[in-house]
Fold:
Amino acid sequence: MKYGYYPGCYVQTRMLQYDLSARNVLKKLGVEIVEMSDAPCCGPSVIKSVDYSMASALSAQILAMTEKRGLDAIVTLCPECFSSFIKINTGFREDVKFKEEINQILASTAGLKYDGGVEAKHLLQVLYEDVGSKLSEHIVKKFKGLKAAVHPGCHFNRASTSYYAEDPEDPRMLDELVENLGIESVYWPLKLWCCGAPTLSFDRDLSLKTAGKKLSSAKASGAECIVTACPYCQMQFDQNQAMIERRVNEKFELPSVLFTQLIGLGVGLSSEEVGLNMNRVSPNAVLKFIE
Amino acid sequence: MKRTLNPKIDKAFFQEVKNSHTGRTLPYCYQCGTCSSSCPVAEEMDIKPHEMVEFIKLGLKEALAQCKAIWQCSTCYMCTERCPQGVQLTSIILSLRDIAMRKGVTVPEAVKESCKNLYETGRLLPLSQFQKDRRVKLQLPDVPQLDTNPVKGLANKTRVAGILGVK
Structure:
């Protein structure tokens, strides 16, 4: 199966370690991708707040472009893009009027039409469902005994009320992926909570406080690192950690690592190939578990 | 939030939200408060999530347009997920933001900037020269400039152009 590869605006500009590690992991595992870098923005929450049709038309345009290239699936790295696509796919299935309205807009602006035939997948699903058990054959290094607080991201678990990638109250996909690497996924009470990143530009103080509670909860549960699958969560836990520490007056020094970086190291990629040097909080505490 | 004794009531407000793209599920709310107790930011909100629905039903448009809470929502969809009545509250809050901006509430800088980037480049975050150079250094494929005509066409049909004042 070939996938359209859509990293999303944030990943391809500010979270290059995610783009880099995802591409290298997919290459190593022999998953074929087709570039979708000429596709526009997916129409995330901030655009949905302004005009829902505009946001929907943007997501539908990307799916229509994928369909036109004869691809069956599009893989995203960002849960926000993922949920935008899922909303179109479920909306098109359930509501004919919505489908007509969006297709009408698409025809007049981009000359495209979307039939609803592209499966939207997050990279997590590609690794968990499609690569599946073959992943463990590729693993050459393990992080024996590393305790991790796993954070899959809200928009992945709760993409739509009529489509579930996994149980939204007890997500296990990311946990099981990292458990393949010998990592122990700890129970932490605030696992399902939002990281606070979406409010960063509207209420900075609230955003940092929310993230502080999460980091506190992870630390108290004995986690030695956080594992993320979302560029915004990663930005919040890694790049903003120093700011969060100042805001809540607590030291965390808790490395946050993208799941593609961990899996990349596990399948034998070097730390440069997974962009570990671009993480702000030193991941040395994670690296010392490699055996 | 400042509470007033005789608040202005807009009787058409309930229908307005209900008719919005995502408001169909609004009438099913029975005020159990599951949304507010599941919300990670409710304790900081001036109007709690379940109260927002009640405010809509009471026609308190002015109060909702002026409140901080609709912008504090982190859009994590936990309320939508746990609602026993299937009310899609997160999406309704997104509609409330739109209604508030239409009612003359200052458009937040973040929204303006996102719309501007989208209109000019087709992306939420355009690539800076620094980021381009970094991509080259990491041997990541080039991110091409987009044909912005479809996005501009879209924006001109919707409120995005209005926010930017290009319409």
